[in-house]
């Protein structure tokens, strides 16, 4: 149905227009009955619907509808599977239509700056490329059904402590390269209906009233056409927020901020055209949903099966010393209360009221040789001698032990950050004791963020189940017993200890949080430092093996406008069917800027039968090689060599090829008295000026003079070489003003030279 929204807005009173810019209650937008504008409902639920009635609350104290809890982002991102994420989104879109929901509040794409962030389980990755591609696929799936998404939290919301008022102080390059690209990719590729701004300030300005963020970048640069909503209670100054590009305040302000908008229009401090535009943007999205409502079954059982598949495709096998898969004929002792009381989702506003939950022991109830021993509680850190002794006795008499370990609900949640990376000490202690009497031990982890593993070298198997959704038990069972070949890979690095993390000294408390690590986040830091880690980004094992060969580039010399097609063959060299995630990284060899050792710029998941070979293809463009240049306020790739790396993880590069890039994009010349001679010589446009000044310096200090090598002893020759090297180094680092100090030219001559260069 075609609607003339401008005409509709023109019929609204000032009070009605102001009212459209805030919620009716906690979950509904206002309608205008006389004009046929409906009141529509939004709902939490990136990994399932958390639908509440009008008496509901933000954090879920009141009951939600029974729904399906799919695996949260911490796990689903490990699938590295765009098609699967689209299917996931498609299911959420159908469920939302069945429940009359216009917008699902998600996905959450904030970067995992630190393992301590209490909400990391809702976020995809430490890598912006992976987070953006994953989000775009999910959003496209949801919005296939004309149900909107609200990508969040825009932007730089990387901690829970003081999240409603602290300032994330981030330099422009770091914002552009790390904290904004996931949003940018999703906006440009999938066109989310809405964007949710974050609580925090960015460099001192609240996200909810930041015109650079909400208008200059989001709309003018990226082309966003939906509406921006606040996180619940994120509004600081409502009128300033509206001017900046915040259309919808959630939840209701009970008329307080509506009246501020009305007053601002009446006194002339707010142009009514700004309000009209905001209302039109909101109505466009309202009617996109309302005019495309469809009958849908709330297919709980079918979606439970999909939740199981997503979990199976995403869980990461981290260690396997010939202990997995398990055999039904083996005597297996399963230890740890997580085996019967799994932790499968995080706490806070995304908490789903699951219609059913499968534990590992539920899934293994038909297995005669499997016994369960509690060993320790899933809810608290308490070592009980009786429980521990029962577990040790069972471990001694078993062929193999599976320990279901993890973090209790209270250890990580929305609203607060972790203070450490430890598992409960009772679990670490019992794992040590069990491995001492039973070396054939496997640990299954249930956690929303990485944990330190002091027992890692003692166990033979380790499965990272993260938070697996309501079908977690079935998925774990199928992987442990080989019914499913594990194929997930880590979407984040697991460091050995917290202090290894690059944000360790600057994460958390304070009114201002300075992102001192810059672009060196996650593997970008660990790999550049050559720091040992427990498990690197992109890592994951399989029950089969894969070989890479025949890396081919369709061109080795590229210009700005060119794309490069990269192909590589992958072969299943093992005995069972499996899936491999092929990763493409780009390494900048030009030395033009300080950059990470490598950055993910492509990935594909491929399924292979034993002995089968398939060709995987990637396409790279200028942006794939570029970094954000703050003088240009744009992306820039220097001319020179770049290495295309194909790997099974960021630490397992199998093949590489060199691309030579010639860029037409010129950096601005901004010479001044403190510009060094080395800087002049490094740019072909200013090199002649730098050379002219260097010759003056050489002549003054005697550098560059011819010498009679035969007339000098070896010691003198060495001294002269050192002196020449020192002289060159001093000259290269000499600011232009230095030639004045030695009377080598006049200030007028030097200024004329600077003016000439700045006009090039």
Automatic annotation (TrEMBL):
A molecular function (GO) held by this record is: beta-glucosidase activity
Biological processes, Gene Ontology terms: carbohydrate metabolic process
What the entry lists under Gene3D superfamilies is as follows:
Glycoside hydrolase family 3 C-terminal domain (3.40.50.1700), Glycoside hydrolase, family 3, N-terminal domain (3.20.20.300), Immunoglobulins (2.60.40.10)
Give residue ranges for domain Fibronectin type III-like: 580-650
Which InterPro entries does the entry link to? Cellulose_deg_GH3 (IPR050288), Fn3-like (IPR026891), GH (IPR017853), Glyco_hydro_3_C (IPR002772), Glyco_hydro_3_C_sf (IPR036881), Glyco_hydro_3_N (IPR001764), Glyco_hydro_3_N_sf (IPR036962), Ig-like_fold (IPR013783)
Which keywords appear in this protein's UniProt record, sorted alphabetically? Hydrolase
The record's similarity note reads:
Belongs to the glycosyl hydrolase 3 family.
> What's the name of the protein?
Glycosyl hydrolase
């Amino acid at each position: 149905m075609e609607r003339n929204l401008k005409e509709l807005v023109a019929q609204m009173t000032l009070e009605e227009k102001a009212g459209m810019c805030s919620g009716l209650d906690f979950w509904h937008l206002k309608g205008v009955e006389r004009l046929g504008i409906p009141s529509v409902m939004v709902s939490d639920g990136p990994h399932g619907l958390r639908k509440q009635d009008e008496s509901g609350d933000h954090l879920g104290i009141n009951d939600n509808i029974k729904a399906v809890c799919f695996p949260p982002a911490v796990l689903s991102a490990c699938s590295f599977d765009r098609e699967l994420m689209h299917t996931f989104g498609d299911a959420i879109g159908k469920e939302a239509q069945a429940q009359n929901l216009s917008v699902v509040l998600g996905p959450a794409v904030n970067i995992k700056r630190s393992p301590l962030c209490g909400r990391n389980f809702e976020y995809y990755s430490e890598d912006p490329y992976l987070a953006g591609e994953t989000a775009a696929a999910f959003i496209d799936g949801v919005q296939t059904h004309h149900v909107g998404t609200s990508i969040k939290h825009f932007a730089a919301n990387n901690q829970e402590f003081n999240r409603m008022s602290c300032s994330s102080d981030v330099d422009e390059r770091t914002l552009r390269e790390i904290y904004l690209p996931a949003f940018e990719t999703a906006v440009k590729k999938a066109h989310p209906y809405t964007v949710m701004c974050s609580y925090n300030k960015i460099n001192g300005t609240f996200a909810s009233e930041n015109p650079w963020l909400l208008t200059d970048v989001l709309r003018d640069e990226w082309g966003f056409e939906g509406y921006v909503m606040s996180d619940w209670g994120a509004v600081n100054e409502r009128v300033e927020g509206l001017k900046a590009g915040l259309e919808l305040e959630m939840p209701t302000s009970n008329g307080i901020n509506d009246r501020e908008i009305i007053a601002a229009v009446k006194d002339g401090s707010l142009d009514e055209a700004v309000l009209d535009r905001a209302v039109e943007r909101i109505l466009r999205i309202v009617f996109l949903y309302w005019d495309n409502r469809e009958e849908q079954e709330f297919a709980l059982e079918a979606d439970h099966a999909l939740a199981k598949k997503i979990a199976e495709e995403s869980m990461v096998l981290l260690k396997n010393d010939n202990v997995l898969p398990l055999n039904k004929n083996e005597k297996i002792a399963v230890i740890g209360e997580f085996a019967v009381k799994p932790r499968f989702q995080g706490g806070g506003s995304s908490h789903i009221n699951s219609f059913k939950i499968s534990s590992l022991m539920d899934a293994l109830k038909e297995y005669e040789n499997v016994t369960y021993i509690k060993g320790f509680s899933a809810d608290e850190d308490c070592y009980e001698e009786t429980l521990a002794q029962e577990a040790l006795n069972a471990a001694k008499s078993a062929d193999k032990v599976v320990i279901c370990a993890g973090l209790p609900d209270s250890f990580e949640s929305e609203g607060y950050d972790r203070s450490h990376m430890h598992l409960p000490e009772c679990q670490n202690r019992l794992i040590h004791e069990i491995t001492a009497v039973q070396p054939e031990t496997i640990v299954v982890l249930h956690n929303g963020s990485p944990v330190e593993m002091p027992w890692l070298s003692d166990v033979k198997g380790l499965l990272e189940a993260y938070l697996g959704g309501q079908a977690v038990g079935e998925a774990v069972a199928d992987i442990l017993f080989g019914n499913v070949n594990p194929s997930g890979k880590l979407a984040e690095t697991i460091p050995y200890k917290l202090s290894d993390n690059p944000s360790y000294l600057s994460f958390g408390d304070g009114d201002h949080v300075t992102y001192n690590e810059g672009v060196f986040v996650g593997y970008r830091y660990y790999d550049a430092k050559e720091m040992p880690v427990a498990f690197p980004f992109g890592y994951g094992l399989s029950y089969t093996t894969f070989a890479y060969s025949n890396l081919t580039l369709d061109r080795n010399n590229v210009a700005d406008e060119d794309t490069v097609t990269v192909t590589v063959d992958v072969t299943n060299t093992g005995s069972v069917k499996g899936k491999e995630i092929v990763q493409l990284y780009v390494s900048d060899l030009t030395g033009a800027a300080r950059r990470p050792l490598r950055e993910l710029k492509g990935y594909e998941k491929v399924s292979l039968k034993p002995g089968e070979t398939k060709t995987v293809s990637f396409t790279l463009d200028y942006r794939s090689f570029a970094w954000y240049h703050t003088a240009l306020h744009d992306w820039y790739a220097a001319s020179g060599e770049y290495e295309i790396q194909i790997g099974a993880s960021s630490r397992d590069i199998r093949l590489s090829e060199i691309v030579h890039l010639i860029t037409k994009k010129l950096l601005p010349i901004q010479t001044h008295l403190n510009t060094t001679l080395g800087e002049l010589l490094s740019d072909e446009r200013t090199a002649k000026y730098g050379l002219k000044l260097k010759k003056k310096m050489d002549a003054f200090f005697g550098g560059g003079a011819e010498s009679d090598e035969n007339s000098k002893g070896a010691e003198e020759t060495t001294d002269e070489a050192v002196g020449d090297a020192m002289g060159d180094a001093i000259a290269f680092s000499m600011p232009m003003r230095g030639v004045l100090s030695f009377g080598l030219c006049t200030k007028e001559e030097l200024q004329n030279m600077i003016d000439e260069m700045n006009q090039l």
